[in-house]
Write a structure and sequence with these properties.
By secondary structure, this protein is of the alpha+beta class.
RNA sequence: GCCGCCAUGGCGGAAUUGGUAGACGCAUCGGACUUAAAAUCCGAAGAGAGCGAUCUCGUGUGGGUUCGAGUCCCACUGGCGGUACCA
């Protein structure tokens, strides 16, 4: 069975070339200053999202993106670029730790084993990585710099005026000058509250099953993204990163990036910027003030009540004695509801009147203050002004509790709907302000602006922008992560000395969760105690390592800096018109709001502090599409439709796997696996083999006797140069499927020749090389041995072929003749024929006559080289 | 609900700025080679009508713009992904 399939000896040639690439370091990329570095070469940085080395090994989704980047890397090298194409391991994380707990093996051991396996699998696929730059996020030499970057965050604050991170020392000096009478403790507390990495006591997502807290991004539908366990809110002391300070820039600087629109939208949506105003309401009979955020200040005259979140600090003070019991009960009920329940019950609005009233600043009216859990403490100010006529949620609530609904915006061009005027309705769109003395008759946008001006000049509010984005919860109660380089003493934290980095994890026998909120590291008593202080026992989340690995690749062995200045400038810097950063980044869409947002944030901090030279890390991003099982369903063990890449390589070879994954369809599209499809590309590669090779009686392969060292005829040259042109531009555009189709056409053409011109064949092998590197190198070597006129170096070190226009043009062109847009005939005309000649020929066509007979020819349209359309009626 | 993506033969998919719909591959059918099969090579093929040359219809649905629409515009339908009380 398997004998039958080996139509060419891929099982011999693939290991041969992989070994040679390894030994000769064929794909090593020199850094500035390295031997062999050519400053004249432009750089090209093509990056894969590095894998988490799971116990399962590679699945077929990995090679899809990896093959795409590998084709680009090999192509750009031959095009004369110095190409950075690295690989590494995102090796901290929950699965490794959970597996370790189950088996009792240390996560370092299992991680090493998994990395070993992944590396072997990738090498078997012939990817042209520079393995000298391999990184592993769990290596002490890597952890050192992750911790070092954390300390940069810790030692920085966000300067609101400059809209950038600055060293905290600067803030300290400023503070000292401005408030000399402040005590050291007060100043310290202030500075600690300003750091980009800070400690906060706040409700967090605690997952009892995993024994850790999770970031908002790691919680999906109230369940943990890993494992799908219940997540509850509980207040805990945690490290946070001030990503919210970068909300503006994370949105604005996203715009010019060459990213899929969908991913940009996802990030924009996640960051969730809304513009509006903060408005302050005075609480009746007290000195209390309630500030609300609204995107519709133009509807203030329609604000007929207010709602506070049940957790709002002013609730206790506002509540009147006779409403006390009801309010207390509601607060208890609300706190007992899980996030899941709160969203499930989203349809039915609940709430309780506090008994208190506030004064609407625009008209002095008293409005009742309610509490309701549809108002979230975590967004805006935790309080809203309710405008039931123009907000769906307020409308529902007002209907439920019979609160006044007052129209203050009238739809433009709306018909007078006096027929159902008694029916209360809600209109949330833009229109014309009515019943609003200050702004009557104005359109919504104008009304908003005027209202904000009025609020500002009367001291009732100001322009404001709000974000959905929350600060990034950065600590985890796990063992297998980077320890924080932080010491605690008398309730205060401080950084450890940078010379003591990396701070390694303690060796522990028992790294299980403690069953409480104490992290496992708290059990390493000797490690925790340092003189009079104790170490932070939380660890960093998995995302920490992946926030900067693309920088480390540029200078992976540097022990003095996280990245050398010269290396950073060369690989990440902006050159000429280019925007700089990673030139092409390919990976799955699942990281749209996690890794890709976090990495941008870190990069911006490093940029502000002067460590990197561009504000954005990834210039061009492409998401490879999901590969489904043969049945069109998502691949999963339970469906039994999982394809193992090792099996495919075993049966058809790595070149076939690579080629098939690129031939399936457009890179970014979801598409189903097809075993028959693999056989198809395998047959194609076998045809290429037989284009060059033939077997004798004994079945030994030898260079084909029909290959000749002669010039190709014009027809062959035309196909060949069309192929050079199409393959080149298709690779640039990542249209690999059509590039392969064109190479198939070219191969079929060459196969049919009785004498095959060997230089044309060698050119085809060059074009095929990025896709099927083993086969093409082997055939080229065999041909080069026989034909001295061919390049004697391997293809990887050759220059990419250029097409010549002179071979593309033909003397005679076939043109289509249409009558009224319908195809009726074809004509062959000389290349240099005039419009008039073509028209005459077309009109004279026999097959055209029946369709023009009895009609008047109104117009004849000639599209050069394409068609003639006769308009007749 | 909102946001993004998609819809073309039996199947995966091709079609520059609007200009020959179905490239290439799979599956299918026919032929060559073979004692036979596999492999390989050659050929056919969107659907319908016809002996035929040919004709009619065809890119989710309905309209529109145009000499000409898979492509552009309007209104729908169906599917995939994300997100959801964000004021």
């Amino acid at each position: 069975m398997s004998e039958r399939r080996k139509q060419y000896p891929f099982d011999v040639i693939e290991p041969k070339w992989q070994a040679r690439w390894d030994e000769e370091k064929t794909f090593g990329a020199p850094n500035p200053g390295d031997p062999g570095f050519d400053p004249g070469k432009p750089k090209y940085y093509v990056l894969d999202m590095f894998p988490y080395p799971s116990g399962q090994g590679l699945h077929v989704g990995h090679p899809e993106g990896y093959t795409a980047t590998d084709i680009m890397a090999r192509f750009k090298r031959m095009k004369g670029f110095n190409v950075l194409h690295p690989m590494g391991w995102d090796a901290f994380g929950l699965p490794a730790e959970q597996y370790a707990i189950k088996t009792g093996q240390h996560p370092r051991v299992t991680t090493e084993k998994n990395v070993e396996r992944f590396r072997g699998q990738l090498k078997r696929l012939g990817f042209s990585y520079d393995w000298e730059r391999e990184v592993n996020t769990t290596d002490p030499g890597y952890v050192k710099w992750t911790q070092w970057i954390f300390l940069r965050l810790y030692n920085s604050y966000f300067d609101e005026r400059e809209k950038a991170a600055r060293p905290i020392r600067r803030l300290e000096e400023k503070r000292r000058a401005e408030l000399p009478e402040e005590t050291a403790e007060e100043r310290r507390a202030f500075l600690d509250s300003q750091r980009l990495a800070f400690v906060s006591e706040a409700p967090v997502n605690w997952c009892p099953e995993l024994g850790t807290v999770l970031s908002n991004e790691e919680v999906v539908d109230g369940k943990s993204e890993v494992g799908g366990f219940d997540v509850e809110r509980r207040p805990m002391r945690q490290w946070m990163l001030r990503i919210t300070a970068y909300g503006h820039r994370l949105i604005d600087e996203l715009e010019p990036l060459d990213w899929p629109e969908g991913i940009k939208a996802l990030q924009r949506n996640w960051i969730g910027r809304s513009e509006g105003a903060d408005v302050t309401f005075r609480v009746q009979r007290t000195n209390d003030r309630i500030t609300v955020f609204t995107t519709r200040p133009d509807t203030l005259f329609g604000a007929t009540y207010m709602v506070l979140a049940p957790e709002h600090p002013l609730v206790a003070e506002i509540t009147t004695p006779d409403q006390q019991r009801a309010v207390d009960q509601y607060k208890i009920d609300a706190s007992n509801k899980s996030d899941m329940q709160r969203t499930e019950l989203a349809k039915d609005k609940t709430g309780v009147f506090t008994g208190g009233y506030a004064v609407n600043p625009v008209n002095g009216e008293d409005v009742p203050i309610w509490i309701a859990d549809y108002v979230l403490m975590s967004y805006g100010t935790g309080a809203i002004m309710a405008v039931p006529a123009h907000d769906e949620r307020d409308f529902e609530f007002a209907q439920e509790f019979n609160l006044e609904i007052r129209e203050v915006v009238h739809p433009k061009n709306a018909p007078d709907r006096d027929d159902d005027d008694d029916e209360p309705h809600c209109f949330a769109g833009k229109g014309i302000a009515v019943n609003s003395p200050l702004i009557d008759g104005l359109e919504t946008d104008e009304a908003k602006a005027k209202m904000i001006d009025w609020l500002e000049s009367n001291g009732f509010g100001r322009r404001a922008i709000n974000f959905k984005l929350r600060d990034w919860l950065f600590s985890r109660q796990r063992y297998w992560g980077e320890p924080f380089p932080i010491l605690w003493e008398k309730g205060l934290h401080r950084a450890i000395d940078e010379n003591d980095l990396p701070l390694a994890l303690p060796e522990m026998e028992d790294f299980k969760p403690t069953g409480t909120t104490d992290p496992p590291l708290s059990k390493a008593i000797d490690w925790v105690r340092v003189d009079g202080a104790s170490r932070e026992t939380n660890t960093m989340p998995q995302w920490a390592g992946s926030c900067w690995y693309y920088l480390r690749y540029c200078d992976a062995r540097n022990s003095e800096r996280f990245i050398g200045e010269e290396a950073e400038e060369y690989w990440m810097g902006a050159e000429n018109e280019e925007a700089g950063g990673v030139d092409l980044y390919i990976g799955g869409t699942e990281h749209a709001v996690l890794h890709l947002l976090y990495a941008r944030f870190w990069h911006k901090v490093l940029f502000d502090l002067g460590y990197v030279s561009t504000p954005e890390p990834f210039q061009k991003l492409v998401n490879q599409g999901l590969i489904q099982g043969e049945d069109g369903q998502k691949m999963s063990k339970s469906r039994g439709n999982v394809v193992n890449p090792d099996d495919v390589v075993e049966e058809y070879g790595a070149d076939s796997l690579r080629l098939f994954e690129m031939f399936m369809g457009p890179l970014e599209q979801t598409k189903p696996w097809s075993t028959k499809g693999v056989e198809g590309v395998f047959r194609f590669l076998s045809r290429v083999w037989r284009l060059c090779m033939e077997s004798d009686q004994e079945g030994n392969w030898m260079v084909s006797s029909v290959l000749v060292d002669e010039d190709a005829d014009r027809k062959t040259l035309k196909v060949l140069h069309e192929t050079i042109k199409k393959v080149s531009s298709d690779i640039e555009g990542l249209d690999f499927n059509t590039a392969i189709a064109q190479m198939m056409v070219c191969t079929n053409e060459l196969t049919q020749l009785e004498k095959r011109p060997v230089r044309a064949v060698a050119t085809l092998l060059q074009l095929l090389n990025p896709f099927a590197p083993h086969l093409s190198e082997e055939l080229h070597e065999l041909l080069a041995n026989k034909f001295p006129s061919l390049h004697q170096t391997e293809i990887a070190r050759q220059t990419w072929p250029e097409y010549k226009d002179e071979f593309l043009v033909v003397d005679e062109i076939e043109m289509v003749v249409q009558v009224n847009g319908k195809l009726r005939d074809r004509i062959v005309v000389k290349k240099e024929s005039s419009k008039e000649e073509i028209e005459r020929t077309a009109l004279a066509c026999e097959k055209v006559q029946p369709f023009t007979e009895g009609k008047t020819v109104r117009k004849v349209i000639v599209v050069a080289g394409k068609l003639v359309n006769i308009v007749a009626n």
